[in-house]
Amino acid sequence: MPERIEPLAIAACSATSALGHGLAAQLEALRRGRGGLRPNDFSPAPLECRIGRVAGVEDVALPAPLAHWDCRNNRLAWLGLQQDELMDAIAGAIERQGATRVALILGTSTASIGATEDAYRRLDHGRFPEDLRRPEIHTPHSLAAFVANATGIAGPALTISTACSSSAKVFASAERLIRLGLADAALVGGVDTLCDSVLFGFHSLELVSKHACRPFDAQRDGISIGEAAAFALLEPVQVAPNAPRLLGHGESSDAHHMSTPHPEGRGARAALDDALVRAGIGADAVDYINLHGTATLKNDEVEAKLLPRFAPRTRASSTKGFTGHTLGAAGALEAVFALLAIEHGIVPPNLGCSEPMPAAAPWLALRPSSQRVDVALSNSFGFGGNNACLVFGRGDPA
Questions:
Q1: 124 belongs to a structural domain
Q2: What pLDDT is recorded for position 254?
Q3: Contact (CB, 8 A) for 242 and 397
Q4: Of the candidates 192, 16, 48, 194, which has an alpha carbon nearest to the alpha carbon of residue 118?
Q5: Secondary-structure percent of the chain, ordered helix, strand, coil, rounded to 5
Q6: How many domains does one find in the chain?
Q7: Residues labelled as active-site residues
Q8: Domain contains 175
Q9: Gap between the Cα atoms of 233 and 322, Å rounded
Q10: How far does Cα 32 stand from its chain's mean position?
Q11: Cβ proximity of 381 and 372 under 8 Å
């Protein structure tokens, strides 16, 4: 069994999604129950579906020293870094700890593959077109390498790509690096952007709904795909004693099937158990759960089997009805939503659900509400049985 960990402060965080740029836009949408999904207008031949597209990505211009990193994914990363005074917070951590003692751990499932798709569409006598002959963007590590250059972080830099749990697992990796003395702070997060590989890939698996997704609804019929950039700065609690905290994390890989979860949720349950043990709490202490809730038949069926672990008072919701499934960015984005629940005392509704699954109905929050949230859980369950659960808690006012 894992041991309880020392909490880490979430000294700063930010999120940019289809709901808008920065925390204030996310909070306003969650409070009002206003989703950001829209008819698909992405790609040369758009699928008939809804997407969570971030406004303004096409208009982002990277500074001249970073221009060679230009691609949609890195533009969204840059846009996200400009929100909520995040760059100032990162600079503060570098000043306190030293650039080589700040780690960078980011999750993504597609990185800048959209640029690679474009390069293959425009092959020039068998070669990439001249404007895309930039090897640094045609690699899964493009995102982390770009952010390291953009922020000046010079510590350990890792890219985690475990499908939909990618940017949840970054929190666990950061905690380990800090606990083992390999870093004193860490910028974690996730960025994924819309691209044809994702849209048509999920469509080929018959997992994309033509309508806005309906997590945990009896009539759910698939996902809506979105894009997002979300970040969090982890530091020792002494740096920010009043800030929300990472209390625990749990990970597992059940490898049951390439795209279908274990029917009894074995891997998800193992990740949950470890997260609660590391946090030093029982399931009855959890006030709010941000469910993975993709609105696919199997994911929601299996995740609902975890809910009887929690007290009847615990509220739960999937926020993918707001943003779409942001894939490798989902873990970090939904972690930020859990942090907003703690800081502002909100419970986001399970948008799009009008006929709740009986197995989940007792816990589902169907309308926006306000209540004190001291402990929030965020679930991320990816393809291949890559699972992660994160536990966040209120900071100590003393």
A1: yes
A2: 80
A3: yes
A4: 194
A5: 35, 25, 40
A6: 1
A7: 164, 292, 325
A8: yes
A9: 24
A10: 21
A11: no
CA atoms within 13 A on the CB side of 165: 26
The single-letter code of the amino acid at 355 is E
Phi and psi torsions of 253, nearest 5°: -140, 100
- Length in residues, the chain: 398
- Residue 369, pLDDT > 70, answer yes
What is the widest separation between alpha-carbon atoms in the chain?
66
Q: Which residues contact 116 (CB under 8 A, 6 or more apart)?
A: 137, 138
> Average pLDDT in the 275-303 region?
96
229 forms beta bridges with 16, 191
**2 within domain boundaries:** no
Of 155, 194, 174, nearest to 324 by C-alpha is 194
In a domain, 1, yes or no: no
CA-CA distance, 172 to 192, in Å (whole number)? 19
Domain that holds residue 39: 8-393
- The pLDDT tens digits of the residues spanning 80-128 come to 999 999 999 999 999 999 999 999 999 999 999 999 999 999 999 999 9
Please give the model's pTM, rounded to 2 decimal places: 0.97
pLDDT in tens, 315-335: 999 999 999 999 999 999 999
The residue type found at 127 is R
CATH number reported for the structural domain that contains residue 116 in this entry: 3.40.47.10
Enumerate residues 6+ apart whose C-beta is below 8 A from 204: none
- Hey, what are 137's tokens? 């963007």
Token pair in block for residue 234? 């982890």
Q: Which of 192, 140, 232, 147 lies closest to 326 in space, CA to CA?
A: 192
